[in-house]
Amino acid sequence: MRNPIPIELAGQPSIEVDGALVARGLGLDVAEFRRLMEIRKISVLCERGTGEDDGLYRASFYHQGRRMRLVVDADGRPVEPMTVSDSPPLRPGPQDE
Predict the structure, then answer these.
(1) Which residues contact 41 (CB under 8 A, 6 or more apart)?
(2) In DSSP terms, which residues pair with 46 in a beta bridge?
(3) CA–CA distance, 95 with 64 (Å, rounded to integer)
(4) What pLDDT does residue 97 have?
């Protein structure tokens, strides 16, 4: 996996997803994506699957009205195609300043 980025899970070890894949989904180059992550201009929500989705995680990345979602396994490997949509931010945050 190129350019992994950590995602922290409450009470669980973190998983890493391919930062280049997320950057591409948000229409950013990898360097700009990493810079925006470092300065908290991209919001992240990670949800853990239950029931038949146990062992899967849905990571949603929000930046300037765009949402990129990626469903991955515990090793950070995508198990479904990513989805990208126009969406308001998850919550008002640094990306809105």
Answers:
(1) 63, 94, 95
(2) 59
(3) 7
(4) 46
The answer to whether 14 touches 6, Cβ cutoff 8 Å, is yes
CA 57 – CA 77 distance, rounded (Å): 10
- Cβ contact 46:16 at 8 Å: no
pLDDT of residue 96: 46
Q: First-to-last CA distance in the chain?
A: 32
Q: What local confidence, expressed as pLDDT, does residue 5 receive?
A: 75
Distance (Å, whole) CA 88 – CA 31: 24
Q: Are strands 83-86 and 4-9 parallel, antiparallel or unpaired?
A: unpaired
Distances (CA, A) of 43 to 5, 23, 51, 69: 13, 13, 26, 12
d(CA 73, CA 59): 11
